[in-house]
Amino acid sequence: MNIMGHCHGDVTSGVNDHASQLRRYHMVAQVLELGIIVHSVVIGLSMDASDNMCTIRPLMAALCFH
Fold this sequence. Notes:
Elements: H1 13-49, H2 53-65
Helix pairs in contact: 1-2
InterPro entries: ZIP
Protein name: Fe(2+) transport protein 1-like protein
Subcellular location: Membrane
């Protein structure tokens, strides 16, 4: 029984799957980063629109953590 050279499926499919997985992770990271940026801008606009110091302090702390 000779099993050398016996292969099921495409040999390059593992490489293509790895590249597509990396592209997917890259896209997910970009979407998350965009969400953080938008969230920080909204916090900044909320700080600018607020006149109450009790509202500004927590927003400033949240902005610093971002």
